[in-house]
Specification:
There is one protein chain. The chain is α+β, with helices and mostly antiparallel strands. The protein is built from 13 helices and 24 strands. The strands form 5 sheets. Strands 4, 5, 6, 7, 8 and 13 form a 6-stranded antiparallel β-sheet that branches. Helix 8 packs parallel to helix 9 and helix 11 packs across helix 12. The longest helix has 23 residues. The radius of gyration is 29 Å and the shape is globular.
C-alpha cells in the first residue's frame, strides 16, 4: 500500500491526514475561527524597536504584536559582516510602515514571527521578488536533474527579462515536487507566480497599516499544492462542494494528479478509515506503547520536548544488550512517526536506553535519521551528547497537535498533576491555625471538594480532633461540588 491523503471538511474546520502504508503519519487541522497565518503578507507598522535584542515588534492586526529580527529586515544579499554590524535602530524606526510576511504562527505566549524577505509558493516553485537567485531543493539529490532544472529556469528567466525590458525578475527556488517537471510546466508556474505578484503589488498601493495584503490558500487547497505528488495513490475528499473546488484547482495548477482525486460518500466517516481518529487521540497522550512491550513518554514544554524510551514489559530472548537494542530500534521508528503526527517542533531531546555497543548506537541513530528524511519539516540531528542523549531540532511553523486541540487544565494549570487530598488537608489545618491567631471566632466551616472533605472526616479525623482541642473551637465541613481538588475556603462562624 502506498500513500494517500484524506481530506475531511466541515463548515467549522478542515482536517487533512497523510497515510503511508496504511498508517497515519501526519495530521493537519485548520479551524475557521483560528486559521493559521503562515505565508500571509501584511502592511505592518513598527510599534517598538528593541536595540538590545536586535529586533522589533510590528503591529499587523493580531491580538499580539509580531516579532521581526534584524536579519529578516536586511537585504538577502547582505554579507555576514554587514549582518553582524547592523543595528536594528538604524534599520527601523517606530511608526514606520513595513511590508512583512509571517514565517511562524503565534505559538503559546509568543507572537507571530515575521520577515521582509517575501516568498510566494506555487506547485513547483517558490518566487522570491527580493533577489535573483535560482535554487533547487536539497531533497532533489540527482546532480543531473538539478542541473537540468537550473538550465530550464535560466532559459525561462531570459525570456522574462527580454519581455519585461530589463525589469527586476526576482528569484526562484525549485521545490522537491519539481523533480521531473517539464519546461512547459515550469513556464506555467512562472507565469502564475508573476501574475500573483503583480496583484499583490496592486493591493499594496494605498494600503494602510495594519492590513492584510495577501492570504495563503486554505488548508484543503494547500494540501493539494504542497503535499500531492505523482507517487500518491489517491486523494479522498468527503465533501462534494470541496471536491468540486479541488477538481477546478487541480486542473489549473496540478493537472497530473486530477485522476487521483476521489469524492468519498461513504457512510463511515472518512477519518475512521485507517483509524485516524484513534491515532489522534493516542497522539494527545504522554505514553506511546511499543509492540515489543516497551513504551515512550513524551513531555512537551514551551522550551523543548523530551522523549524517554523504556523497555517496559519487554525482556527479550537472549541478553540485556540485545533487548535494549531492539527496543531502541523500535523506539526510533515510532519517534520519527510521532514527531510528524504530533507536529512537534523546536528542540527535541531523546533519551534512548543506554547501549554499550557503539555499532548499536550508530544503527539506532541512522534509523532515526532515515525516518526523518521523509518529514516535510526540516530536521537536524546533532548527534549524541556527553550524557548519552540524542539532540535534534525540527522546524516549527505552526502549533503542535496538542496545542491546536487542547487547552491548559484549570485544575493543574499545566503541571500535569494535582495535590493529594492529604496535602490539601494539611494546608487547611495551617490556614485554620493562621486565622485562629488573627481572629476571634466561635467555630470554623471548611468548604472543599468531596475527596478532600472525605479524607478529613475519615483518614484525618484524629488530627481534626487534636486541632479542635488545641484551638478550643469546633471545625465543621461542607462539600462544594463545584470546587476543584485544590480549591478550599475556611469560613469564620
Amino acid at each position: 500500500m502506498g500513500e494517500e491523503i484524506l481530506i475531511n471538511f466541515t463548515p467549522m474546520e478542515t482536517r487533512v491526514a497523510v497515510i503511508e502504508n496504511g498508517m497515519p503519519q501526519e495530521v493537519y487541522i485548520e479551524r475557521v475561527r483560528r486559521r493559521g497565518i503562515v505565508g500571509n503578507i501584511y502592511q505592518g507598522k513598527v510599534v517598538r524597536v528593541l536595540p538590545g535584542m536586535q529586533a522589533a515588534f510590528v503591529e499587523i492586526g493580531l491580538e499580539r504584536a509580531a516579532f521581526i529580527h534584524v536579519e529578516d529586515v536586511l537585504p538577502q544579499t547582505a554579507t555576514s559582516e554587514e549582518k553582524s554590524n547592523a543595528s536594528i535602530a538604524h534599520v527601523l524606526r517606530e511608526g514606520q510602515s513595513l511590508v512583512v510576511q509571517v514565517t511562524k504562527d503565534p505559538i503559546g505566549t509568543k507572537g507571530a514571527r515575521l520577515t521582509t524577505h517575501l516568498s510566494i509558493p506555487s506547485r513547483y516553485l517558490v518566487y522570491m521578488p527580493g533577489n535573483n537567485h535560482i535554487g533547487v531543493s536539497q531533497r532533489i539529490e540527482d546532480i543531473e536533474e538539478r542541473d537540468r532544472l537550473r538550465g530550464i529556469m535560466n532559459e525561462l528567466l531570459k525570456e522574462i527579462a527580454d519581455g519585461d525590458e530589463g525589469k527586476a525578475r526576482g528569484g526562484f527556488i525549485l521545490r522537491t515536487v519539481a523533480e521531473g517537471a517539464s519546461a512547459d510546466e515550469l513556464r506555467e508556474d512562472v507565469k502564475f507566480l508573476r501574475r500573483l505578484w503583480d496583484k499583490i503589488q496592486r493591493n499594496l498601493k494605498g494600503a494602510k497599516a495594519p492590513s492584510v495584503i495577501y492570504e495563503d490558500l486554505p488548508l484543503n487547497m494547500r494540501a493539494l499544492r504542497d503535499m500531492a505528488h505523482g507517487g500518491l495513490e489517491r486523494i479522498r475528499i468527503d465533501s462534494r462542494e470541496t471536491y468540486q473546488k479541488a477538481t477546478e484547482f487541480v486542473k489549473s495548477l496540478v493537472p497530473e494528479i486530477s485522476e487521483k482525486l476521489e469524492y468519498y460518500p461513504g457512510e463511515r466517516p472518512i477519518f475512521d478509515l485507517f483509524n485516524v481518529e484513534e491515532e489522534i487521540q493516542r497522539a494527545l497522550g504522554r505514553k506511546v506503547e511499543l509492540k515489543s512491550g516497551g513504551y515512550l513518554i513524551f513531555d512537551q514544554t514551551e522550551a523543548m520536548t523530551t522523549v524517554d524510551v523504556n523497555t517496559g514489559a519487554f525482556v527479550g530472548h537472549r541478553n540485556l544488550e540485545e533487548t535494549i537494542f531492539k527496543t531502541n530500534l523500535e523506539a526510533a521508528t515510532a519517534i520519527g512517526r510521532q514527531l510528524r503526527l504530533r507536529n512537534l517542533g523546536g528542540i527535541i531531546i531523546i533519551d534512548f536506553i543506554d547501549m554499550e555497543d557503539s555499532d548499536h548506537q550508530r544503527q539506532v541513530l541512522r534509523t532515526l535519521e532515515r525516518l526523518l528524511e521523509k518529514d516535510h519539516a526540516k530536521c537536524k540531528v546533532t548527534g549524541v551528547s556527553e550524557l548519552g542523549l540524542v539532540e535534534m531540532t525540527r522546524k516549527r511553523t505552526r502549533e503542535s497537535l496538542e496545542h491546536v486541540l487542547c487547552e491548559t487544565c484549570e485544575q493543574c494549570q499545566g503541571r500535569g498533576s494535582i495535590k493529594m487530598p492529604e496535602t490539601v488537608c494539611y494546608e487547611i489545618f495551617r490556614e485554620i491555625l493562621r486565622q485562629h491567631r488573627a481572629y476571634d471566632t466561635d467555630s470554623y466551616l471548611v468548604l472543599a471538594a468531596q475527596n478532600v472533605v472525605e479524607y478529613m472526616v475519615d483518614d484525618a479525623s484524629d488530627h481534626v480532633a487534636e486541632l479542635e482541642a488545641f484551638i478550643g473551637k469546633t471545625i465543621r465541613f461542607q462539600i462544594e461540588p463545584m470546587y476543584a481538588a485544590e480549591h478550599y475556603d475556611v469560613v469564620l462562624r
